[in-house]
Write a structure and sequence with these properties.
Elements lengths: L3 H6 L6 E7 L7 H12 L3 E7 L2 H11 L6 E4 L2 E4 L1 H7 L13 H22 L5
Length: 128
């Protein structure tokens, strides 16, 4: 069995992928859309199987013994969901629950820029 490192170095062009993803009138799975885009962007030929109802999705998950969709296979080997696909392709997996300080840094950066601009405007006015 090949290691993950060996699999991620394998070119994906010319390979076949199969994806099962939820596409109902009420909901289109965003992870399914992202996975479909990643597969195509990496040059895989994609066989897309949209699951068109909640009952069809639940039946698929029960049959496969999985908790979520999408589910992806590449060249007949089950990869898993969107995050598993990212790992398989050697891409970083973003943790949506991870804390980020970007908004705080942006606010303090803007406050600093405004303070410096205001101080610079006052510095040029000197006593009359």
């Amino acid at each position: 069995m090949a290691s993950l490192a060996q699999e991620t170095e394998t070119p994906t062009v010319g390979r076949r992928a199969v994806i099962y993803r939820m596409v109902t009138p009420e909901h289109v799975c965003p992870s399914g859309l992202k996975a479909l885009h990643l597969l195509r962007r990496h040059g895989l030929t994609v066989e897309d199987h949209p699951l068109r109802s909640r009952a069809e999705t639940d039946a698929f998950k029960a049959e496969q013994g999985v908790a979520t969709t999408p589910q992806i296979w590449i060249d007949g080997i089950r990869i898993g969901g969107h995050d598993d696909l990212r790992r398989h392709l050697g891409l970083a997996v973003h943790d949506p629950k991870a804390l980020t300080y970007r908004p705080v840094i942006a606010i303090f950066g803007m406050a600093l820029a405004l303070a410096l601009a205001w101080a610079g405007a006052w510095a040029g006015q000197g006593p009359s």
